[in-house]
């Protein structure tokens, strides 16, 4: 019999997108949250956006391509340079999450093909 601590489960989703398509991230989680992007050839991730009180704040290079229609955060016009992992982190509890319950750690891998 397996004894699994559900808080350690990592859900990994890999999708392929075409250049110009929109990536929609579901933020149906308690706020505040941050979106962390890690490129395929990078060891570390970087915070690209935060959502607090349904207000979206993004790094300058993402501001013109992102929008929030709660609970969805949209990254428009994905390009091959956007390939990598996107993690949604609950800042209040310092947990990586996707939707609810907040005990899932989720990494979304996006590969944009030309």
How is the secondary structure organized here?
Layout: E1 10-17, E2 23-26, E3 33-39, E4 46-52, E5 55-58, H1 60-63, E6 66-69, E7 72-75, E8 84-90, E9 95-97, E10 105-112
Parallel strand pairs: 1-10
Antiparallel strand pairs: 2-7, 3-4, 3-8, 4-5, 6-7, 8-9, 8-10
What number is the mean pLDDT?
A: 75
Any idea what the radius of gyration is? 14 Å
Structural category is mainly beta
Our measurement of the CA-to-CA distance between the termini, rounded to an integer number of angstroms, reads 46 Å
Query: CATH homologous superfamily?
Result: Immunoglobulins
Q: What is the CATH class name?
A: Mainly Beta
Q: Which CATH architecture would you pick?
A: Sandwich
The rough form would be described as: globular
Biggest sheet architecture: 7 strands, mixed
Individual helix count: 1
CATH fold-level label: Immunoglobulin-like
The percent range for strand residues is over 45%
Low-pLDDT segments, ≥5 res: 1-10, 99-108
- Element pattern in H and E: EEEEEHEEEEE
List the keywords.
10 strands; single chain; about 110 residues; three-stranded antiparallel beta sheet; globular
Write a structural description:
This protein is mostly beta strands and 114 residues long. The protein has one domain: Immunoglobulin-like. The protein contains one helix and ten strands. The chain has one helix spanning 60-63, and strands at residues 10-17, 23-26, 33-39, 46-52, 55-58, 66-69, 72-75, 84-90, 95-97, 105-112. Strands 1, 3, 4, 5, 8, 9 and 10 form a seven-stranded mixed sheet that branches. A three-stranded antiparallel sheet has the order 2-7-6, with no helix packed on it. Strand 8 and strand 9 form a beta hairpin. It is globular and about 30 Å long. Mean pLDDT is 75; it is low at 1-10 and 99-108.
């Amino acid at each position: 019999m397996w004894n699994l601590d559900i808080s350690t489960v990592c859900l990994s989703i890999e999708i392929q997108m075409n250049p110009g398509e929109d990536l929609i991230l579901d933020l149906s989680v308690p706020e505040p949250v941050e979106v962390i992007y890690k490129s395929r050839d990078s060891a570390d991730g970087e915070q690209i956006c935060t959502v607090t009180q349904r207000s979206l704040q993004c790094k300058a290079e993402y501001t013109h391509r992102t929008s929030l229609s709660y609970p969805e955060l949209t990254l428009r016009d994905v390009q091959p340079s956007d390939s990598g992992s996107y993690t949604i982190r609950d800042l209040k509890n310092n947990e990586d999450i996707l939707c609810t319950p907040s005990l899932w750690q989720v990494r979304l891998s996006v590969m944009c093909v030309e």
